[in-house]
# Entry
Amino acid sequence: MNRDIAGAIECVRERIAHACEGVGRDPESVQLIAVSKGHAEEAIRAAYHAGMRVFGENYAQELAAKASALSDLPDITWRFIGHLQRNKIKLIEGARATVDTVDSVRLARAISARAATRAIDVEALLQVNVGGEAQKSGCAPEEVPRLVEAVRLLPNVDLRGLMTVVPHLEDVDATRPFFKALRELAAAHGLAELSMGMTYDLEQAVEEGATMLRIGTAIFGPRPPVER
Ligand SMILES: *Cc1c(COP(=O)(O)O)cnc(C)c1O
# Structure
């Protein structure tokens, strides 16, 4: 591995700082999540040694394998950002991951029930498909009130905010209305966390209020082709 991961993280932090400066935000109010799907353990170790502590993974099996292989890194934490099937909840338990992609009451109930058997609370975000794209997961914006209400009643899920993957548009500024829509939904429900913004649109996301950025490519480089 010859990519300069520490240098890449530094560049991302500069992009965040610059975007924050433009709108008078404290860079500390934006959490950087390193999205490591498809990348090797060595790359994650390099990012960890460059100061990263929070990593995002999309596939249950891959997360389980990495969390176990990297369990010598004491304060590493994981966020699950892929589509989660209920029968895979068990797989990610060892990683003690948050679930940032809750998009149905059924899934939230299953997470809460499993968490109860382990006497823990699982931190969660609701994923919202603000762009209304058929191929993307996430609940419709109209479903958010009902979902928030139902998830808040669950004893072992701690609902912290909303997450979205906005449409990839050639004019990156055209993503702003989607970020804004998520921010307004979160505010309407008293939810603090907004996980939005990726490599391509991190400046726009920060300017529109993101509290978490999920950055893969800008840290680890292009993803190797998936074999699964
Ligand atoms: C892969 C992925 C990312 C990271 O995207 P980059 O463009 O590589 O920064 C962020 N969020 C989700 C949900 C992803 O699947």
Summary: The domain at 5-220 is CATH 3.20.20.10 (TIM Barrel). Residues 190 and 214 are 22 Å apart (CA to CA). The radius of gyration is 17 Å. Residues 35, 37, 58, 81, 165, 198-200, 214-218 surround pyridoxal-5'-phosphate (CB under 6 Å).
